[in-house]
Amino acid sequence: MGCSVSGAGTETKVVIDGVNCGILAGHAYALNDVFSIPNAGKLNTKRNIFRLLRIRNPWGKGEWNGKWSDES
Fold it and tell me: pTM here?
């Protein structure tokens, strides 16, 4: 299964809150896994589960550097 992010153009950097997040808009990524992780800090809110996707760039370049990244 695959996925992509829409943005200002093809193969353009995706910027979230003024920071380059490490992925490209209009680029195809492979969807490798899906996770649901309970949010122990906010069990009584609408956001009591984090839903995460593990994607892979078939070109092997670039890496997500936002929340939940290796350095997060």
Answer: 0.71
pLDDT in tens, 22-47: 889 989 999 999 999 888 776 555 66
Q: Which residues pair with 55 in a beta bridge?
A: 31
In sequence order, the 6+-apart residues with CB closer than 8 A to the CB of 27 are 4, 5, 10, 11, 57
Measure the CA–CA gap between 43 and 55, rounded to whole angstroms: 27
Distance CA 48, CA 38 (A): 6
Residue 26 contacts residue 6 (beta carbons within 8 Å): yes
